[in-house]
Structure formats: C-alpha cells, structure tokens
C-alpha cells in the first residue's frame, strides 16, 4: 500500500503504508482517514499522525477474499461501515484521552454495531441513519435440490447494537444474474443527489430514494385509496404532485363503483368538507345511481348550506318509498333548509291516498309547526292523541286556539289537561272550562275536583254542582269535600245524601246542622256501629248525647260492652252499670269492669303524679324567688328618688339618711313615701300599684 504526496519542490514522494498481507481488495479515503482491505482484514491509517490506528480482522476466513471481496464505505468523517461475507460492522473512530496515550496512536476505533445478514454482501452505502445493502443471493432448487444464483437484492436495513431490522427489500432483475458471482456486483452512491448505482457485468441500475409522491402513486396504482388518502394527509406539506381532494374524489368514485354506497357517502363528509359545489355534484351523482338515501344522513345542514332543491329532492325520494325515513329527516333537518310549503303540499297529496297514516300526519304537524301554522298542527296532534300536544300549547301560547278543544284535551290526558288549564286560568277562565265540559259531567268533576284541591274558595260558585258530581262519580271524596267546603249548601247536600242513602255523609251533615241527636240515632240504627257512635259522642261532648246513647244501648248487650270499654273518661260508668237489668248476659263483662277499674286507677295515679310535679315546681320556684329577693341591690349617686326625683343619696355622706328600695327596684326617700294605713303596716311601691303591676313590698331600708 503506497501513499504518494507532493514535496516542497512539486515532486511526488511515496511512502509505504502497509505490505506483506496479500492483495489490496478495496480502498476508501475520507478526510484524514484511509481505510483499505486485504486478505487478512481492514486497516485504518491516520494521515495527520502518520500512524495506522486499527486492524479489523476478517471474520469468516473460509471464504475466498477474491470471490467474496470486502465492501467499505464512510458514513461520515469518523464512521466506517465494513461488509464482508455475511458480516456487517459499524466502526467509529474516536479520540484517545491524553492519560491513555503513552506510545499509542491519538485515535482508536470502536465497533458500535455488528450483525450477520442472510446473504453475501456485494456493496454498502449509507442512507441517513440506515444502510443500503446490495446482496448476492444463493438459493436451493426445490426440484433438483442444487444451489443456484438468484437475483441480487437491494435492502434497506436499520442497524442495531447486535442485530438489524429490515425496512425494505427489492429483488433486482439484471441480465445474466444466473452466471454472476458475489464479486461481479458493486454498489456506489452519490451523496448530494441521493442516487445509488448498482453495477453488474452487463447492466448498471440507478436507484433513488422514494418520496411521498412516489408512495402515493404506488398506493393509487394498487387501488389502496384509503391508505393513499391517509398518507397524503400526513405528508401534505411534502407532496408536490398530488392533492388531497383529488385523491379523495378518486376514493369516492372507487367506492361507488364497488357498490359501497354508504361508505362512499360517509367519506363525503371528510373529503368534500365545506365545498358546496362539490357536495351538489356528488348528490346528483348519487341520484343518477339511485342512492340518494345513502347520502342523506351525511348532507351538511349548517356550514355550508346547499341549494333548497337538493334537500327537497332527497325528501321527495323518501316520501315516495320510506315514510319513516322521511319523518326522521323532517325531525333532524332545520326547517329553513328547504321550501316548507312545497313539502307540505307533497305530504298532503300523499295523505289523499292514505288519510289515516299516522307517520305522515305527525310529520305534517311538525311541518305546520315549522311554518308557524300552530292551529293546524294542534288539530293533528289532538287527532293523533300525541304526547307533544301540551308542549306545543305551552311553547307557542296556543291557549286561544284550544278554548273549543277542551273536551278533546281532557279525553286525551285529563291529568295533564287539568293541570295546564288550572295553571293558565288567566288565559282560559274557570267559567269557560266548566261551560265547555257541561255535556261531559265526569270530566267536569275531574276539573272541579282538582280546582277544589288547589283552592277551596276559587270555585265556590260550583260547590252546589259538585255535590251531585261527587255523589255520582267519586263518593270516597264526597265526605272530605263536605268537611272542607265552607260554601256548600247543607240542605241541598243533605237532600242528595238522603236520596242516595249515604249514611256517613248524612250523619256528618246532620251534626254540622246542629241535629246531633238525629245523627247519633242514624249511626246506631243504620250503621249499628257502637264504636262510631261513641266516637261521635266524644266529638260532640254533649251530655244529652251520652244519655241518648246509653238509653239506646241498654237493651243491647254488645253495645253495653262497647260503652263500658270506652266511656270511662267521659261519663261515670256507675250511671251505666246501675241501669243494666238484672240477669242480662253481657259478653266480656268481667274484662270490661276490670278495664274500668284500671282506667280509674290510672286516673288517680295521673292526678297524684301531676300533684307531685306541681308541688315540686312550686317549691323550686319559691326557692328561686327567695334567692333572688335576698340578693343585695346596688344604690349609688346615679339613682334617684321616684317621688321627688332628686338623687337618692345625699351629697354630704356625713348626714344621716333613710332610703327604701322595693323588689321592683324603685327607690324612695323614706320621708317621700306616704304613711302606711292603719289596716296594713306594709308599704307598697306607689308606681307599681298605680300601674296595676301588683304590690311590691320593701326589700331594703337603708339608714344612717
């Protein structure tokens, strides 16, 4: 290995770098470093230090170096890539630390990556942080089981520390590859242009790095439109020959041709975006193939807005074949997208053929609502008994339109209708509602009953009418109504209840009208309910009623038992016991008498207990008052005599004085108080006595 250099006189000077290890198979020079390969391995020479800094030995010595030559390439000024046989080494030239140098070169080589490949290496080239490898391939024939030469491969691999990852692989077709050997192929590259030259005995193949446009071309060629669209979106800043929109339109056409109409329509949202003209074009294209229904869910409804004709065309398509789909679009699409009157007329034409179709009727009501024709919409909703009728009335304040439709509303949902009518009395009066329901008394009752529950006085003019309504349709609520109403005519109510033989209601009315004895008699004769009779007598708390009850019960043993068990706290049981005839058998008499005695004992115990509590409380309060009255009272120069209004204490403390202080805290000079009377020696506060606040005796007399 010779190195030629120019001398100072412009003459060439040669120097032997290495010798004695066979032929030099490959040489690569980069910057200040020279790398060469001979039969023994790879050497690197540093021109600056004039030293050979490393020797990388050949791994597989079984391979002939002339048949499987070494491939060298510099990735950069300090990184050498060695390919020999099936082995690849990535070597990095590094500076040696000053403390380690001694007699060693200033640089050394470190192998940062080493791995094996499947095939023999004919050439290497760097590609960013990856490698381009030209491989010589031998395979075994399945028929003859003999080894033969296959097409060479151009691989892109990602070096790792001890292995590699294959990125791509292409088999190259060159003439005469069947007769070529590993040494017949070479790989060279041009850094600036990213071009790679594959040289064989009969061909030169030029390869260049594929850009994103090339990738998209390949995807489109393979009809992988979705992947092409995705690749274009990811690399939209780098692509030059393609447009995302064009790829998208081609994708839509491909899907339509394949019959995937729903997917094609769904993709329109993303691909067409806000381009109204393209949207309209695609809609007409879907119309030509009879697939307007497929694109209808994805049409833009706000930004952009298409021509009304587009939406009307789709609505007519659904109206001809799919009423449910038509109704769905009417619900989902804003009413300003299309000409409402045109669609209304179309629906009415269809209703002429099928007048009872609920879907069309409901949709027509919604169209009327969009058109603010609330009266017609309300009429349809009521006919259909649709749940949204009340919401429509509230939302659009249609109370003037329902004054003649109250019966329909009540028939549909009486609860909601009554609540709505009562909540809006200012818009539909009570009188108007009652008049409209005159021919439907059962509905009239529902309305008036709810009104009475809300306010006992608002519908007072109808209370007389309500008696008959309750008696006819709702007897369980008649008695509560009679109890709560203060405007109900009692005579009329009594007449109705007696006609219908409503005993409980009649009893209540008799007692309310003051005829308690007749009411009690009715309980005993009609109801035969001693407990109810006793309860009634307790409520009235009238001695004559108790007497009547006893007289009626005296010949009826079960009634006597009931009285004995319940009247102990209201009537003296002795009065009843004395009237019982001798020899009369009374059921459970012993138990009743025991209960009377127990009740009496209980009353005695309660009285004694109350007496003890009263005495204890009185004594406690007396002690408390005594403690309070025993406390001293502060008298100073700020206090005044309540009679003469002069300071209670003299200005000269040496003078004798006498002061009287009452429990009420009023103070007097003793000489200012009137003299006590002859009948009572006690003194009282003039002020408190005059105000009737009760006498207050003196609690303190101060003298000096």
From TrEMBL:
SMART domains attached to this UniProt entry: CLH
Record-linked PROSITE patterns: CHCR, ZF_RING_2
Sequence ranges assigned to domain RING-type in this UniProt record: 641-689
An example molecular function term from Gene Ontology annotations: zinc ion binding
CHCR repeat intervals: 418-562
Pfam families attached to this UniProt entry: Beta-prop_Vps41, TPR_Vps41, zf-RING_Vps41
Keyword tags: Cytoplasmic vesicle, Endosome, Golgi apparatus, Lysosome, Metal-binding, Protein transport, Transport, Zinc, Zinc-finger
Membrane topology: Peripheral membrane protein
Biological processes per GO annotation: endosomal vesicle fusion; protein targeting to vacuole
Intracellular or extracellular location(s): Endosome membrane; Late endosome membrane; Early endosome membrane; Lysosome membrane
Chief site of localization: membrane
Cellular compartments per GO CC: clathrin-coated vesicle; early endosome membrane; Golgi apparatus; HOPS complex; late endosome membrane; lysosomal membrane
Top-level taxonomic group: Eukaryota
Entry function: Plays a role in vesicle-mediated protein trafficking to lysosomal compartments including the endocytic membrane transport pathways.
Entry's family note: Belongs to the VPS41 family.
Record-given protein name: Vacuolar protein sorting-associated protein 41 homolog
Lineage: Eukaryota, Metazoa, Chordata, Craniata, Vertebrata
Gene: VPS41
């Amino acid at each position: 290995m010779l190195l030629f250099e120019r001398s100072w006189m412009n003459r060439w000077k040669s120097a032997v770098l290495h010798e004695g290890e066979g032929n030099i198979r490959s040489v690569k020079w980069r910057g200040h470093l020279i790398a060469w390969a001979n039969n023994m391995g790879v050497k690197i020479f540093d021109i600056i230090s004039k030293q050979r800094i490393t020797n990388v030995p050949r791994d597989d010595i079984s391979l002939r170096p002339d048949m499987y030559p070494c491939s060298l390439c510099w990735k950069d000024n300090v990184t050498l890539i060695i390919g020999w046989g099936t082995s690849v080494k990535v070597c990095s030239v590094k500076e040696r630390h000053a403390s380690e140098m001694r007699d060693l070169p200033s640089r050394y080589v470190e192998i940062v990556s080493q791995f094996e490949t499947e095939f023999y290496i004919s050439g290497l080239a760097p590609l960013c942080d990856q490698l381009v490898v030209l491989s010589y391939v031998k395979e075994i024939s399945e028929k003859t089981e003999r080894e033969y030469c296959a097409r060479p491969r151009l691989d892109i691999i990602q070096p790792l520390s001890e292995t590699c990852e294959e990125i791509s692989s292409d088999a190259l077709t060159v003439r005469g590859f069947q007769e070529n050997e590993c040494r017949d192929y070479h790989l060279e590259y041009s850094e600036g242009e990213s071009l790679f030259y594959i040289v064989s005995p009969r061909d030169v193949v030029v390869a260049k790095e594929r850009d994103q446009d090339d990738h998209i071309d390949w995807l489109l060629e393979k009809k992988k439109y979705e992947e092409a669209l995705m690749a274009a979106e990811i690399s939209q800043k780098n692509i030059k020959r393609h447009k995302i929109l064009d790829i998208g339109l081609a994708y839509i056409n491909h899907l339509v041709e394949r019959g995937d109409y729903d997917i094609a329509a769904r993709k329109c949202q993303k691909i067409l975006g806000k381009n109204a003209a393209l949207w309209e074009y695609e809609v007409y294209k879907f119309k030509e193939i009879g697939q307007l229904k497929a694109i209808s869910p994805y049409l833009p409804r706000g930004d952009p807005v298409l021509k009304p004709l587009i939406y009307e065309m789709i609505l007519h398509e659904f109206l001809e074949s799919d009423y449910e789909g038509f109704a769905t679009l009417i619900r989902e699409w804003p009413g300003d997208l299309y000409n409402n009157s045109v669609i209304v007329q179309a629906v009415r034409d269809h209703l002429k053929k099928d007048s009872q179709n609920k879907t069309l009727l409901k949709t027509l009501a919604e169209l009327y609502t969009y058109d603010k024709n609330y009266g017609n919409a309300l009429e349809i909703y009521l006919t259909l008994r649709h749940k949204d009728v009340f919401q429509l009335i509230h939302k659009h304040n249609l109370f003037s339109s329902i004054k003649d439709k109250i019966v329909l509303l009540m028939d549909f949902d009486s609860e909601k209708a009554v609540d709505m009518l009562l909540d809006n009395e200012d818009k539909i009066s009570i009188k108007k509602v009652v008049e409209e329901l005159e021919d439907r008394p059962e509905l009239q009752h529902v309305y008036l009953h709810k009104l009475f529950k809300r306010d006992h006085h608002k519908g007072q003019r109808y209370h007389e009418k309500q008696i008959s309504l309750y008696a006819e349709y709702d007897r369980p609520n008649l008695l509560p109504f009679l109890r709560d109403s203060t405007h109900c005519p009692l005579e009329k109510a009594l007449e109705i209840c007696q006609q219908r033989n409503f005993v409980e209601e009649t009893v209540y009315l008799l007692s309310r009208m003051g005829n308690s004895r007749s009411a009690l008699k009715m309980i005993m004769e009609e109801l035969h309910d001693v407990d109810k009779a006793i309860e009634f007598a307790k409520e009235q708390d009238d001695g004559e009623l108790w007497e009547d009850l006893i007289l009626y019960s005296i010949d009826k043993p079960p009634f006597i038992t009931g009285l004995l068990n319940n009247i102990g706290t209201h009537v003296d049981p002795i009065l009843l016991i004395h009237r019982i005839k001798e020899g009369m058998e009374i059921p459970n008499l012993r138990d009743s008498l025991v209960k009377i005695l127990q009740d009496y004992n209980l009353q005695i115990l309660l009285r004694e207990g109350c007496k003890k509590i009263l005495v204890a409380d009185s004594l406690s309060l007396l002690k408390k008052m005594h403690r309070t009255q025993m406390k001293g009272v502060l008298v100073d120069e700020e206090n005044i005599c309540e009679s003469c209004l002069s300071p209670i204490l003299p200005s000269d403390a040496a003078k004798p004085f006498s002061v009287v202080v009452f429990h009420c805290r009023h103070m007097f000079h003793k000489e200012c108080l009137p003299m006590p009377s002859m009948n009572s020696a006690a003194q009282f506060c003039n002020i408190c006595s005059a105000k009737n606040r009760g006498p207050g005796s003196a609690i303190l007399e101060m003298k000096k």
